[in-house]
TrEMBL record:
This is Uncharacterized protein. It comes from seawater metagenome.
Amino acid sequence: MSLSHLTQSRCLTDNKFKFYIETLEELKPLSNDLVPKINGLQNLVLHAAPEIIDKTFWLNTYNLCFNNLSDNSKYMEIFQDKVGEFKQIFPGILK
């Protein structure tokens, strides 16, 4: 089973996983240079243990947005919006 098929299958049954994948997909068009790193994060999300995925995802996504571009303002804007949206959809997970 391909990575793409696994991702699509899991998106159908896991809303939080789908949110993470969609967040990363939203970041891809902003910089072609970061697409391999974003793909790596998507792979991490697919394989990470449920008990660590929330912290791991947000920490790695923040580091990606903050550290890898000289002008990261659009990345950080999307990141902040997504954190706020996540807190509304999945209350109590992030503090």
